[in-house]
């Protein structure tokens, strides 16, 4: 390679890897596999070795991948939080073993541990009380996410027994069990939120939420695997001993840990878990091998990025080849068209795979997919397998390239693509059967209107009979009893049950109705936030994008989508009919009681997470004492009530306008 070519390749790889780091650590939405990422990183490292003059100290090969988001307080680590060097090959693992033996001789042990696929966390305990939880960040400093860590049941807030030091740090991996992931991800799909590709990304995305009550709804777990404290080596001689102690203090330490004296024993452990890992309830992506003795660890030392006394052996995501039989296109309730590959059934990671997702048109183009292609299918942590490549050597001659349809596969309307989005939509909201049926099914679902006596199949049948064309038709069904009775297998009792269920749904609170409308990106939680902030549908319909986006946790994208929904006269018309049917379109305010006038003429904004009261309670306290509650900070605001993890932009704004920042305790003092 020419010197110039090397430089441009180094620059291109650096840019690409930085971009992937951002997607992986900050957005928790990576777009390439770990294996591909690691190969590119290895390519960059090799080039930097050949051309040391081009080595940039900021290169991704020199830095710990960072997740600092600025939404949290940044905290410096007392001991740096490094990464691990990694390998996918036995040969490189043996090289590692030889390097170690050169320094230490043969008198040492390895501790082999599972490599949990989550995100690293560092917990500080003072006098046995959890005082701080910090993410790895760039290795030197990370985000402080203590209140989110406190929602994890297996992390003790207070140590109950054992002889533990006054001050120590304990490090481990936060992760999500596969079952919880599948359940919650299914909900996200139903709510039209972007699903996470795997439990790791879900856990990483969750730890970075601003709202700890939302974190609490997503069960996380945590395994601990490192202990740090001053003079640690006086108390413990080995990593193994420290793990035993940590376990006795009540921390969750994995039981699948083994002491090995030779590299062959290590390889056996690796090969055992390659198979056995599928039976665990959580994902691991490899095995970590650590030199056990602390004295020997010191002898070996560190590189800028990782310890020399440890290495991660990573399992390559399993992949198999099979034949692409066809591609089908599914139309969802929002009109989004998703391509699905139908495959010749094949065994992969213990399950039979018949279908794989193709995401969108870009993906089909990227793969250059042809009919009857032999494709490579991968199943990593993902629930749905995906096609990662095509074996072009096996391509059948003269086969046609897969062409993404220009028209809706169901109703034949021309598909559209919104700016900046990869997904195609069928815009025929009122005439496209899967959209109509899907919307009504969503409306009656448990989390929305929870209509008893009516299931998804009933909706389909009633749609086919012409009795249901839009949501509001549900409330006309009682006029059609005769037609209902003529439907096969639909007895009088079931009909009455269903009609009663529909009638009862009129009592469902506003937030559920709002969720039931199926506005894009408005899931359960967002619907609740919107309902509580705007109180009734008319306020919401009239709100500007800026006003909607001013609500906590609601971004521009959601606000745009809400505005767009209510700009459509057809939707407004539906809302009018449903109002006429007496559905709940306003929140039922609790009987209002004015306790005092101590906060009269004063305005407040509440932000962050509080120790004693929930945000809602604080809001009530303010209003019940005559104060005014606002959602955005302006120069006219009187007080900002701040808890933990307040957004930095709010803080900056408050400081800019010189607005007094008070704690919950100070607020309570004002009314006493
Ligand atoms: N797909 C992408 O776009 C993308 C982008 C960035 C990084 N990545 C992946 O992430 C890797 C880099 O991430 P990394 O720096 O966290 O390295 P890593 O995940 O390869 O290994 C280090 C991490 O392993 C974890 N770990 C799990 N179990 C452990 C145990 N028992 N003992 C010690 N540590 C344990 C710790 O969190 C530690 O920080 C890359 O090599 C790549 O595979 C992928
Ligand atoms: Zn259509």
TrEMBL record:
Cofactor: Mg(2+); Mn(2+)
Molecular function GO terms recorded: DNA ligase (NAD+) activity
UniProt source species: Olivibacter oleidegradans
Function according to Swiss-Prot or TrEMBL: DNA ligase that catalyzes the formation of phosphodiester linkages between 5'-phosphoryl and 3'-hydroxyl groups in double-stranded DNA using NAD as a coenzyme and as the energy source for the reaction. It is essential for DNA replication and repair of damaged DNA.
Pfam family name, one: DNA_ligase_ZBD
Family note: Belongs to the NAD-dependent DNA ligase family. LigA subfamily.
Name of the protein described by the UniProt record: DNA ligase
Leading EC class: ligase
Active site: residue positions: 115 (n6-amp-lysine intermediate)
Superkingdom as given in the UniProt entry: Bacteria
Domain annotation BRCT: ranges: 594-672
Reactions this protein catalyses: NAD(+) + (deoxyribonucleotide)n-3'-hydroxyl + 5'-phospho-(deoxyribonucleotide)m = (deoxyribonucleotide)n+m + AMP + beta-nicotinamide D-nucleotide
Taxonomic lineage of the native organism: Bacteria, Pseudomonadati, Bacteroidota, Sphingobacteriia, Sphingobacteriales
Keywords, alphabetical: DNA damage, DNA repair, DNA replication, Ligase, Magnesium, Manganese, Metal-binding, NAD, Zinc
Enzyme Commission numbers on file: 6.5.1.2
PANTHER family according to UniProt: CHROMOSOME TRANSMISSION FIDELITY FACTOR 18, DNA LIGASE
Positions with a binding annotation for Zn(2+): 408, 411, 426, 432
SUPFAM superfamilies for the chain: BRCT domain, DNA ligase/mRNA capping enzyme, catalytic domain, Nucleic acid-binding proteins, RuvA domain 2-like
Record-listed NAD(+) binding positions: 34-38, 83-84, 113, 136, 173, 290, 314
